[in-house]
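dumping these here so i dont lose them again. two proteins, back to back, each one seq then C-alpha cells. dont judge the mess
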Amino acid sequence: MNKKYLSAEQIAFFNANGYLTVEDIITPDEIEHYKDIYNDFLSKKIDVGANRSDLGDGLGKSKTRESITQIMWPSDFVKELIDMPFHQRALAISRELIGDDAEMDFDMLINKAPNTNTITPWHQDEAYWLNVPDKRAASCWLALDEATVDNGCMWFVPGSNLKEVRPHRFAGKEGGALTCNATENEGVYIELKPGSCTFHQGRTLHYSRGNSTHTERRAFILNFRPAEMIKYERERGFDHGRNNAGDRKLKNDDFKD
C-alpha cells in the first residue's frame, strides 16, 4: 500500500483555501544535501545558460546582481533530482491533493539573496500558463532556509482558488514577472522552518516580500498537474521555459488589464 501523507482534514483545507502547509517533507540531512546542489547552481558551478534569469528584473534597485534568481528545470542538469526524496514525496502528496493522474510538470529554483529586498509581486500562477481544459494543479514551495516575513516567506489569499483569475500585467520589464491587484490585508503569511513546504493551487493568489535580512532564502519549487494536461501543453509548444527560457508572456488574453 502506498504511504498516505495527508489527512482528510488537510485535503479539505487545501480545497477550501487553496494552500496547505506540510511540515518536514525532507530531513535535516537531506536539507544539507539539497543546499549543496542548490549552491552549485547559484555559483554557476552547474551552468544552466538561458535557464537562469532575474525574476525581479526591473523591480530591484541593484544593477550589478540579480534581484531574484530563477533557475528553470534544475532536474535537466542534475538528473538524479527526480528520484531524490523531495520530488518523490511531493509527487505522492500532489496525487493526494489533485488526483492519482498527477505528474511533475516542471521544477525551478527561486533564490532571494541577502539584502536584495525585492518583492515577488502578487500573482496567480494560472496567468503564466496555457488555458488548459483541466485546471487541477499543485505547486510545492520548499524552504531550504528558515522562511520568515522579513526574508520572503509565502503569503496566500485564502479562498482565491475558488474565484476568477484577476487581470495581470507585467510588474517591471516586459517579459519579467507578472502581477495583479492584491494586498497583504487580504492574505496570510506562512513562515516555514527548513525542510517544510507549502502546496498551493494554480489560481491561489500569492506573493512574498523581499529579503531584507543578512541570510539566504533558498526555495525549491515543483509543479504538478494531470499527465494529460502536460501532454496538452507540450503539443502546443508550452514547456515552462525548457526550450524558450526567459520567454514570459500573458498566456491567456482574458487575464490582461
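---- next one ----
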Amino acid sequence: MSWLVEVDTESCIGSGMCAGTAPDHFELVAGVAQAKSSSVEPDEDVVDAAESCPVEAILVKEAASGEVVAPKD
C-alpha cells in the first residue's frame, strides 16, 4: 500500500509546519511547501504534517482507493 501526497501551492502560506513535522517528506522551496515525493509509504509523520497545516494545503490519499487519509474533518 502507498499514499499519494499533494500540496496545494496556491493555498500554502509557507508556515513550515509540514517540514518541521515531517522533514523526510516535505521541504520549503521559495517559501512554499513541496512534497519530496508524491508517492510515499504510510507514515504517521505525513498524517501529522497534513493535520498540522494551518490552511489544510496538504492532502494525503490512499493510492489504490483514493480514500482521504488526512486531513480528516
